[in-house]
Design brief:
The structure holds two protein chains of two kinds.
Chain A lengths: L5 E12 L2 E12 L3 E5 L6 H9 L6 E6 L2 E3 L4 H6 L2 E4 L11 H6 L5 E2 L2 E2 L1 H14 L15 H14 L4 E5 L7 H16 L3 E5 L3 H7 L2 E6 L2 E7 L5 H9 L2 H8 L17 E8 L3 E8 L4 E5 L6 H8 L7 E6 L2 E3 L4 H6 L2 E4 L3 H4 L7 H13 L7 H15 L15 H14 L4 E5 L7 H16 L3 E5 L3 H7 L2 E6 L2 E7 L6 H10 L4
Parallel strand pairs in A: 3-10, 3-11, 6-9, 9-10, 15-20, 15-21, 18-19, 19-20
Antiparallel strand pairs in A: 1-2, 1-4, 4-5, 7-8, 11-12, 13-14, 13-16, 16-17, 21-22
Helix pairs in contact in A: 9-16, 13-14, 13-15, 14-15
Chain B lengths: L1 H4 L2 H10 L4 H20 L6 H26 L7 H17 L4 H24 L5 H19 L4 E2 L3 H8 L1 E4 L3 E4 H19 L1 H11 L1 H6 L4 H27 L1 E2 L7 H11 L11 H21 L5 H26 L1
Antiparallel strand pairs in B: 1-4, 2-3
Helix pairs in contact in B: 3-14, 4-9, 4-10, 4-12, 4-13, 4-14, 5-6, 5-7, 5-12, 6-7, 6-12, 9-10, 9-12, 10-12, 13-14, 13-15, 14-15
The chains are: A alpha/beta, B mainly alpha.
Amino acid sequence: MHDNEAVVELRGITVEFPGVRALDGVDLTLRRGEVHALMGENGAGKSTLIKALTGVYTPTSGRVVVAGSPVAFTGPADAQASGVSTVYQEVNLAPNLTVAENIMLGNEPRRFGAIDVRAMRRRAAELLARLDVHVDPASSLGAHSLAVQQLVAICRALVVDCKVLVLDEPTSSLDAGEVEKLFTVMRTLRDDGVAILFVSHFLEQIYAISDRMTILRNGRLVGEYRTADLPRRELVHLMIGSSFEDLEKLGDAPRREQAAADGAEPLFQAVALGRKGSIRPFDLDVHAGEVVGLAGLLGSGRTELSRLLTGTDRADAGKVLLDGRPVRLATPRAALRRKIAYSSEDRKAEGLVGDLTVRENIVLALQADRGWLRRLPARTVDEIVDRYIAALDIRPANPAALVRNLSGGNQQKVLLARWLATAPRLLVLDEPTRGIDVGAKAEIQRLVAQLAADGMAVVFVSAELEEVLRLSHRVAVLRDRVKVGELVNSDDVHLGDVVDLIASGEAS
Amino acid sequence: MGALAGVRPRAVRSFRLDRRYLPVLGTLVVLVLMLAVGGGRYDGFVSGRVISNLFLNNAHLVVLAVGMTFVILTGGIDLSVGAVVALSGIVAAVSFQAGLPAAVVIPLVVLVGSVIGLLVGVMVHVFGVQPFVASLAAMFLARGLCYVLAPESVPIRDESFVALSSWSVQFGDGWRVTSAVVIALVTLAVAVWVLQRTRFGRTVYAIGGGEQSARLMGLPVARTTVLVYVVSGTCAGIGGLLFAMYSRSGYSLTGVGMELDAIAAVVIGGTLLTGGTGFVAGSLLGVLVLGLIQTIITFEGTLSSWWTRIVIGALVLVFVVLQRGLMGRRTT
């Protein structure tokens, strides 16, 4: 395979935000007729690099060369005019307009100054046909599935003479068949000589479609490789660097001991706790020093159960015993008073305040618990914040950085730090590892194991069964909003057992 | 039932396609119902005279609602239009008093509206001021300028202007069309064309669908946002002109609360305040509904005119709730 002609060359790109250096001297070369994968963990700088290429961000330094001449795009429109089109992870189209309009808007055929609707629909239909998408161009975009919208977004990119197509995680919400369809489209375009930049978290997909890849780590360039020459293991190693060994160690870390002697009184007991329309009454015991995992499919009631445990939703049946004594958890505040903390799965909407700093986010719950009139002394705050930034390795280690500028994994750590700062006896973690990279995931898992070993009771919710099984001493299994069973985790409990329980609703 | 079964799939399909028109259709139904009820209760209600007067008395409001539709489609709001109506009326009266010819005064008056619209647009876009606040500021500015120019009512006696405003065509049994109605309907037609058939118009819808998306689609969001307020201001200028033709004077207290009537008309006409969905034609229907409420209450005779406001309030509430229902179904 000889090297195709380079269409886009980025050299020494550096992008800085207040308090964060998102990219540091990164190079990227895209060649005609190649699919180029951009690899890296969350926070490695992939999105930033794409935005630097398409003119959304202006690089602090470095140069962008397209088709041999240096350019400085002022925005996506400018980039598209030069043949660089982007399709984003969240479909950025207007759902209130028709498919044809979404494809052609800004490039509509016009007659006497007016949009020629018929010609527009015809042209849109041609483009849809080229990608083998069968939808009515006159239908409203919002009426179609996300996959179709994604393909419509690609059609939009093809309206102008598209030399470079950037696909920023286009597959994250598609099912297997839809991904295959997208790949077919990508191959067609590649064979037509388009240079494609492809971002995905799924290694399978990268190996299935890409010819070459550029790897980033912490905003720096790791290198450019031919996909065929780089084994998967090596790729993972390059992506996560030193934390790889930690991940390997993790496998046996939390299983060391079976905590909580069976006879001991549970710290927390839910007795026939339930809420209509949310989850059927269930029993659940959690001992100090124990990790109880919640397993189940999406929509099985994992989150609903966690919310009842922590007073986030009010139960309408059953009771809660803490240290054997009945307590009423009517609100999250009441729960927090009793040292029960809940970390929501939706960290953006129900967790962090993006426009506040790391420092402010960490002390938020602690301060709220004291009441706003009794401010925490600045020195205490500094101590707490510094302790958790160090303990959880929050990066950047800058208490004044705005949380919204942090990567997903670091945001999750800030959220975790907030609840740890309240010194909870029972910590309910709803999907703490979702949408964060492998390295941060490993750190959070290790932390959970450590907390339990130190005597905290933890309820751990995750969509990834392996993770639940690896971390938990006991696993409660949910299906269709009913707790269907409980497994005491040991070496001879396997993934298959949990899956069986989910599938059948009976312990095997 | 059996006979209908054959055509049903087609009917279902066209119903789905036409969902965007549902709110407008709802308004049309309300309008027809009101006409039917009025016609049943009062003699001579559904007549050429009453319907002509409906257009005559509300020509200025039609133009205001047209401009407001542009703004609301992008998800914004323009509170300045009522004050701009007063200001342009006064500018017209004062200019005529100073002896300027109609050929100069009329463009000048419309331009006053455009300039204030531009001001609002620049505040909204360049300085990132909330449309509510920016247009509120413009409202106070315009209203204040009215008092500076003329605290008292200024009559307009210019011959050509009077001639223009009294031009009308009568036909049939009591039907009458005046120059003001023609201007309003031409403005409406131009607005429909601009919104449906030009890039600017489609960009207005795209911004309403999602401003961030529109930006990432490479559409001229900045220019369009500013222009939308210019359109609204210009329409307010035209509306002021029409109101001056109607009242043959300029007065600083004209049009207090008129912006709210315009907004109510747009909402009743089926345009979502969140932007992206709605039609100018719906706003026309909205204005007619408002006018018809007034007419009915006049015909009733015993009711205080304040009942108009109460009915309008109730109607706006009903329409907003209905729209919420419609939106809710769309998201699922």
